[in-house]
């Protein structure tokens, strides 16, 4: 016998209790069947657990044996639940190859999966994490290109769709914890100037200030650490009718962090609710025009073309001059350095000390 068969054999169907009572009062199954108006074979099937105790059967048993129908229905429910759980355990064990594709240890470290090595428990927990009934639903939602439901982009061509989907789900779950106002595009756009000032000053609680300001405008900003097989810096999409900006803090300097934030903000302001944008993920279909628009949007917020030209005209530049311009334009010096390096107006070795480190998760 298999382990499942042994476990099933140890379960006691409600029919055992029926038979025990029949033996106690000295009634045969044939007499019980006659009194209930049911075929003898059907009553034997109920007693052996081959047939469930229905509501009608429970009330017939109540009339004939004097034991409440609720007792039989509860007994039946408990038995069928235990039987189902045993079968599900075996079915979930078969999904261990699917489980192995996910960064289980990292998800466990973040408290998203339980501290256990039992495969069926981990698979079940992973299904709960994603809010899906089976691995087939995960495949349809995150991978199948033609019938993708949750996103308007498939992860089919990415190197690690399992890890990326887990990272995205982490953001969705975090967004549910945030109380946000109804989305107001005008208010959100106006708030970006206040956020730019936070980027310049970068107080110790800048991340919480950022989340609060965005929440007031109806945007959920969530920070989720990047997973080892999901090298993604940020993502923007609408989830349950609210926009989410999800940042990983993968690049740990202020120029990268703030440009990524304003880039994602640009997607929300400029583009539609049906789009999803994943940053730095190879294999996803990229709408380059929209990405360029978001880049221009972020660049202009952080440093206008006029401000940039004033800095360029001041060449030759040194770190002191950069810091003066940063103060004048209320823009982080690291942002100016990054822009000039990107335009190849200064060498990549110049000014890196002006980039501030960001420990995104240490300051949450």
| Strand content bin | 5-15%
- Helix content class: 55-70%
Walk across the major sheet and give the strand order. Answer: 1-3-2-4
**Overall strand count:** 4
In short:
It is built from 18 helices and four strands.
Q: Could you walk me through the main structural features you see in this protein, from its secondary elements to its overall organization?
A:
This protein has 364 residues and is mainly alpha-helical. Helix content is 58%, strand content 5%. The protein has 18 helices and four strands. The chain has helices at 3-10, 14-25, 29-36, 40-48, 55-65, 69-93, 96-100, 104-109, 119-130, 135-142, 161-176, 185-201, 206-216, 254-270, 288-302, 305-313, 319-329, 333-342; strands at residues 220-223, 234-239, 242-247, 277-279. Strands 1-3-2-4 form a four-stranded mixed beta sheet, sandwiched between helices. Strand 2 (234-239) and strand 3 form a beta hairpin. Helix 3 crosses helix 4, helix 14 (254-270) packs across helix 15 (288-302) and helix 14 packs across helix 18 (333-342). The longest helix is centred in the N-terminal third of the chain and has 25 residues, at 69-93. The model has no long low-confidence stretch (mean pLDDT 92).
Notable characteristics:
mainly alpha; 58% helix; 364 residues; 4 strands; 5% strand; single chain; elongated; 4-stranded mixed beta sheet
